[in-house]
Specification:
By secondary structure, this protein is of the alpha/beta class. It is built from three helices and five strands, in the order ββαβαβαβ. Helix 1 packs parallel to helix 2. This is Anti-sigma factor antagonist.
Length: about 110
């Protein structure tokens, strides 16, 4: 897993899972705490996430809200969009361009 960027926009790549959760949490919390306005997470290079990784995203979302910021997901890969829809988190998280639920393949 890698995260590059600054307090306004971060690109998350690789696997966001139980192994990388602690490092990702630290980077995301620092970015939230050090910036103002929207924090954009570009997920176009993310290969996969598990429940722990999704928990890190939700924790960053809550922390951003407490800091008066908004966490915005950009370029969410289709398989991860399906997970957001299945968990109904697409209704809570800000997703740039939204998720076309009707266009996602059924599993």
């Amino acid at each position: 897993m890698f995260i590059r960027g600054d307090h306004a926009e971060l690109v998350v790549g690789g696997r966001l899972d139980v192994r990388s959760a602690a490092d990702a949490r630290t980077v995301l919390h620092t970015a939230v705490d050090d910036g103002v306005g929207d924090l954009v997470l570009d997920l176009s290079e993310l290969d996969s996430w598990d429940a722990t990784g999704l928990g890190v995203i939700m924790g960053a979302h809550r922390r951003a809200g407490r800091c008066g910021r908004r966490l915005v997901l950009r370029d969410v890969p289709p398989q991860m969009q399906r997970l957001l829809v299945a968990t109904r988190l697409h209704r809570i998280l800000a997703i740039e361009g939204g998720i076309g639920v009707e266009s996602l393949p059924r599993v």
